[in-house]
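Check this:
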Amino acid sequence: MKYPGFILSDNLPSSKEIHSFTECLIGYLFPVTDEPELFMEHHEGTLYKLQKRLIDLIESVDRKKNLEKELIADEFCNSLEEVKDLLLKDAQLILEFDPAAFSIEEVILSYPGFYALMIHRLAHLLYQNKVPLVPRIMSEYAHSKTGIDINPGAQIGCPFFIDHGTGVVVGETAVIGNNVKIYQGVTLGALAVKKEDAQVKRHPTIEDDVIIYAGSTILGGNTVIGRGSIIGGNTWITKSIPALSIVYHKNQTVVNDRKDFEEPINFII
């Protein structure tokens, strides 16, 4: 009798292992400790352990043995300081822009948009080095925790701010400039989903200083949102927008007195 299902190789890392590695990276970048001197004593040792874990992960997913795992892990660890600098700029933008944020610590420890971006910046480093599987599992881990779906291939400038975040989707070939702010429910997607277009730029480019409000959908690899534009909520955009534009969806809301409205309204959910 054939086994009724697909059997994964036991050589592959478990998702839990990659999740654990991701959380350890976050703990290394932004440690929470009441003994900073003790943390600094073990700083180099912690980095060495992370590097070793990454080498093991790369080896487990590199079935064709094409990757220089030691070099990739070394470059990744050497980039962590730069990643932290970027993330502190991201956190500062959130603090300055969001009236509900009262401290950098609050942003780092509690903001889902910052958490998703933190994991994205780490996963993107591995994506750039063509490490299979690991960056995608890292991104989907952030997705499961925050509701924010950022493909590890997306290029995101700094600083960047996702407010609230639930339902945000950023596609693999999206390019986002510096000082961009987006709200919940924004989609930066493709006009059509075709497997043969996998190597083609399918997702939009968002230039510097753009604000995209909640529920907006921007589609297409040739679509460029020009610098300094404001995209209003619930808009649907498939063509490029010039710099310094304001785009908004105009609708009409009718208010009637209930006593003059004879037909009952029944909402069924």
In short: The chain is about 40% helix and 10% strand. Residues 11-147 form a domain with the serine acetyltransferase, domain 1 fold (CATH 1.10.3130.10).
